[in-house]
Design goal:
Length: about 230
């Protein structure tokens, strides 16, 4: 999150104001300054009216320089009923020259997604959320990418027979991950599928099926997760 102080404006200021239960007009003025100082005083923080890393963390936001307001759901575009390993995804993304990061075991990885959901529902943390993802062109800086293994019919031969292959465990884990991210950030405006990042060719404000650049994640994520 960005460091905020008197004179700051924008969506992050609104997020701060909502968290402090004051009028959310997006302008960091005297009232917001007073509310911040009161919060800092009551929580044992340095009372300076500046919302930096420690104040953001106390308010419940992860320490990151990224402003994140989207969760984008993907599929691995692999056949129904077939496992696909993290190492294979890593190798594929390395070959595509995705940016690297170091995982918790000290190994250099290239996976573009922040979280991957295996067929048995196991949630694998991959790219740190503090790192910009490589999963949705034009949206990477502001989003967190979550991918489930699957997305193609078992009979597929050329990667075109898309299908919602999520197991019950994957569906449950996707909800768990999305709820957790929304709770931790408080800035998530929408949860969408990769296909919903396609260009709006007719300019009507709706991404329609004929405009999809791809079928991923092979189900309509917007209505499914709109109430979470």
């Amino acid at each position: 999150m960005t460091v905020l102080k008197i004179g700051s404006r924008g969506e992050e200021v609104k997020t701060l104001q909502k968290k402090l239960n004051i009028t959310a007009d997006g302008i960091f003025g005297k009232n917001t300054d007073a509310a911040v100082k009161a919060y800092q005083k009551s929580h044992g923080l340095t009372v300076d009216g500046i919302v930096g890393a420690h104040t953001w963390e106390s308010l419940g936001f992860p320490a990151t320089n990224r402003f994140i307001d989207e969760i984008i759901v993907h599929c691995s575009a692999t056949k129904e009923g077939v496992d696909y390993s993290i190492d294979k995804i890593d190798a594929s993304h390395k070959a595509r020259k995705f940016s690297s990061y170091v995982d918790t075991n000290g190994k250099t990885r290239y996976i573009g997604y922040h979280h991957i959901i295996l067929r048995d529902g196991t949630i694998v943390k991959c790219r740190p959320e503090t790192k910009i993802g490589c999963h949705a062109s034009g949206h990477n800086t502001r989003s967190i990418g979550v991918c489930y293994i699957g997305g193609l019919d078992a009979r597929d031969t050329n990667g075109t027979m898309i299908k919602d292959t999520r197991t019950p465990q994957q569906k449950a884990s996707l909800i768990t991950v999305i709820k957790d991210i929304k709770k931790r950030y408080g800035t998530i405006a929408r949860v969408i599928g990769h296909r919903d990042t396609s260009p709006d060719l007719n300019g009507n404000g709706v991404i329609e099926p004929y405009e999809f650049i791809k079928g991923c994640p092979c189900f309509d994520a917007i209505p499914e997760y709109s109430k979470l």
